[in-house]
Amino acid sequence: MLQILKNSPDPSFRRLSESPSRYLVTAVFLGTSLVAVGLRCFVRLSIVRAFGHDDALMVMAMLFNVAFAVCTFLNASSGAGKTVTYLVDRPEDIRRGYLFWWLGQILYVTTVTIGRLSITISLLRLTVERIHIWILYAVMALSTTVGIVLFFVAMFQCQPVSYYWDRLSIEGHCLDMDLLLGIVYMYSAVAATCDFIIGILPVLLIWRLQMDRRTKTAVAGILGIACIASAAVIARIPYLGSAKSPDFLHATTQISICSNVEAGLGITAGSLATVRPIIRLWSRMTFAIPSNHSLTASCPISGKRRGTADCRDDANSHSTYASYVTEPQWPTQTTYAIP
Asked: What does the alpha-carbon distance between residue 229 and residue 25 come to, in Å, rounded to a whole number?
């Protein structure tokens, strides 16, 4: 193995390390998805008070996404993203790089499969037409099936399993790379199609609801972010062939980056659609009390001097408003697009 690395014929990768780009992209999309899921949990637990199965699945997907990001960070800190020039005399970095890459594959497919399942269940709550229901069930079945297939292929692609990262010190064998890539191409095609359907179908659903055009556009746009996740899957496809490179840990940098983008965007898209109650509450708080009025020297709403009858009326109005803000009477419901 070391001799192969020393004689690697692939001179196209001139940079010594691509690790910084992995750190940056992973951190950005991990942070975005964490914020989105945090807001989702706040809305569903504190405002709407209806925490459903889709919410639990999204939290589970977020936990796997955190583990996936940690693997990416550890991967980048060891061998991944670095060229053979750096790794040729560092067998332990090679071992750690392959180990965390192997773990990352498993965590990636788990994250996106569970996240896609959560989004699909959420959309089923908005669906009334039978054709749309069957489409969503088909998406769930296809996505889950190819996810399970890729999960087990990634886990058991080498025999013994530890040969994947201990290939420098033990004997073993792995699946033919062409066969493995064929499975990954199949998975990518199905995943991109499912993400595209999940992104387009909400537009058809929202446009049939009784809402003004501005609200429809905003909600459909948020739900349609899943289309960008499908773009990340498609963008990764041209780089899949780099897995055959002798400079594997460096050549597969773009695969890792696109995978983190896909996972982060999918979770973010599935969670942002639930935060409209926060936006509505914030809007009512913002427009109910003008910011240029002092609450210490004048009345909270009209600005009249304290002690006057008008001021007392304003104070009563403000008290009623404050009670509304601190104890919002949100109806318990399960529809995401219309809080």
From this structure: 14
pLDDT digits (tens, 9 = 90+) for 251-301: 888 899 999 999 998 899 888 877 766 766 665 665 554 444 443 333 433
End-to-end CA distance of the chain: give it in Å, rounded: 58
Give the pLDDT band (50/70/90) at residue 33.
very high
Chain length of the chain: 339
DSSP 238: G
Q: Where are the alpha helices (DSSP H) in the chain?
A: 2-6, 19-42, 53-77, 84-87, 91-124, 130-155, 177-206, 213-223, 226-236, 248-251, 253-272, 276-288, 309-326
Yes or no: say if 312 and 305 are a contact pair by the CB < 8 Å rule. Answer: no
58 pLDDT higher than 60: yes
Domains, the chain, with CATH or none: 2-6+14-274 (1.20.1070), 290-326 (no CATH)
Cα-trace Rg, the chain: 26
Query: What CA–CA distances, in Å, run from 204 to 16, 194, 305?
Result: 48, 16, 54
Return the SS3 of 176: coil
